[in-house]
Amino acid sequence: xxxxxxxxxxxxxxxxGFCPVQTAVDQMAxxxxxxxxxxxxxxxxxEFILDxxxxxxxxxxxxxxxxxxxxxxxxxxxxxxxxLLIAWHEAGEPEPSGALANxxxxxxxxxxxxxxxxxxxxxxLESEGIAANVxxxxxxxxxxxxxxxxxxxxxxxxxxxxxxxxVRQELIPDILMAEYRARYATIFDRADxxxxxxxxxxxxxxxxxxxxFICSDRWMKNRYGGPLRAKVSNGFHLRTxxxxxxxxxxxxxxxxxxxxxxxxxxxxxxxxxxxxPDIDAGILTKLACELTGDNAPGPAxxxxxxxxxxxxxxxxxxxxxxxxxxVRRLEAEFEPIEQVGCKVGIGVATGADKAFxxxxxxxxxxxxxxxxxxxxxxxxxxxxxxRGYGVINPFGDDGKLVxxxxxxxxxxxxxxxxxxxAGRHVAKKSPARWFRTIxxxxxxxxxxxxxxxxxxxxxxxxxFEGGKLYPHHNLYxxxxxxxxxxxxxxxxxxxxxxxxxxxxxxxxxxxFLRFQAQYLRRIRLPRWQDVGDQLRSDLSRAAADLDYKGxxxxxxxxxxxxxxxxxxxxxxx
Length: 573
What we know:
Strand content: 15-25%
Largest sheet: 9 strands, mixed
Number of helices: 23
Radius of gyration: 29 Å
Strand order of the largest sheet: 3-2-1-4-5-7-6-8-9
């Protein structure tokens, strides 16, 4: 075989002279596993993803182009090559130099991983009877050492697969992060580096091509994923979604929230959805057939079909079709909670709790300069059981910081704590205002009846507070100028709050949800004037008694739920 028949893939020239971006890339190329975000995928999961994107040995794979943008130790690359070799043999193509030259492109930044995997690829090719010199040239042609986000690629691809790196922005040199931001529109807010990996992978897909990744599901609902979701909705199609949270998808136990997505460059609208499959080769092979087959998935398959998941930058709603149908019905008939006279907020962040927060009686300041504080531990029982803490209030009734000369006790209290308080970022930005809390404090909030809601919970914990305490920043609050607060508590104690939050929130490990303001604001409510007197009474009484069954019964009447919808709300269906 003529090794010279394999053309050498051109590499972009090294950047001449001193280049800060290249220096940063070189720094990342020698980083350890944690710094470069390497997580290795189990073989069964790799084979499953290859099945989902249609990269199967019964296809003419020698006529297709596959990209693996961060190949690491070859978890995806080697199985893909093995499938390619089977298809090549079946096609009876005698010359690998011609038939295989343009079939694979793999990119890897980490130097040691690149060299080790290139040797493994060459050895695998030799094991198929390919001459050593040809195998070496193929491996050299297929594999590119460099930064996928900056590298020049030879062409577009039919298939992109992999497990993009999980690297937080703060671990990337500033000069390199600036270069990424200049190139990739999806890097927004605190987006992890896998976000631009997905963006570029979609950009290099051919028409009808498919990108199959396993990576964190956070971007599908979080704020930072908005630009990428918008991109997918414009010219792409979420063909498959498999929730992998809680499964043993990786070769080591990692704290991750993985999902498999197959995104195609086509105009389809239907997404096939599956949840938490057993990591077993036989089970995954059968599931892949259900997720990719021409026929509708069978009722026993666990696969559901959801239409039009990707809509602009809106969060992707991937729950069961019955829950989603109920959410959509309520959204169509009722208004968001803040449009019917309610306000959702979060308690005060001080930036230095040890300085600003103490036992209320130990805060030796003027009475107007402290407020009793509600904290998460005060409401664990479902009722407020105040432990006696308070917070310093450095703001006057006009919303401006007070003059410390007018409050000598406050000044005397803060001065010994000045170093800790003034060391905060907010204080360094404005040294003259060194003693402000991060958030402004509104004393009138303490006097209002309100609902207090902890952030991370398995189910909604909605606690009534009668107008004596100011909420800490670990608590969200709801107040209302129209709704009676006890009645509102009953609505949120029912399955309504969890239904909406579970639909829009990312799920935490252990099944916990984030009851954050952005998700609470999604809840729909009738207007208070449309609630009859008897129903008002039923709601308030159920809430005061923490009667969850009574809350659900009253809420079923409030929203005119059918029996089936009530069963969905209570988790019985």
